[in-house]
Inverse folding.
């Protein structure tokens, strides 16, 4: 296999901001299973493993860490290295979150054109 065909993993992925419903569900999950909430929110393997170790030894700091992780800012979400492969595939390097969704005004123009 030549060097030009080898695909490397990007350094980070820009994950979109959670919807309010998803964020609420992840916060509830953070109370009961903090490492799983971090994993589902796109945490790195190191974050998930460290949170699991902290959760086994000290429950309250693990819950707080998980809630802070789920509620992190858009800038911090842009520096994610998720452990879930599906998040790497969905959000390619350099791709903006929600770039596959048409802007709202363009979407309504398309509806109006179909109706006319």
């Amino acid at each position: 296999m030549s060097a030009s065909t080898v695909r490397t993993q990007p350094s980070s992925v820009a994950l979109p901001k959670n919807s309010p419903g998803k964020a609420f569900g992840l916060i509830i999950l953070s109370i009961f299973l903090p490492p799983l909430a971090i994993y589902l929110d796109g945490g790195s393997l190191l974050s998930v493993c460290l949170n699991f170790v902290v959760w086994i030894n000290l429950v309250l700091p693990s819950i707080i860490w998980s809630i802070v992780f789920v509620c992190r800012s858009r800038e911090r979400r842009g520096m994610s290295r998720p452990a879930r492969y599906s998040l790497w595939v969905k959000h390619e390097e350099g791709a903006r979150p929600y770039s596959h969704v048409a802007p709202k005004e363009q979407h309504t123009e398309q509806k109006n054109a179909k109706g006319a």
Q: What stands out?
A: The mean pLDDT is 74. The chain has seven helices and no strands. The helical segments are 20-32, 34-40, 45-57, 59-70, 74-77, 85-90, 104-115.
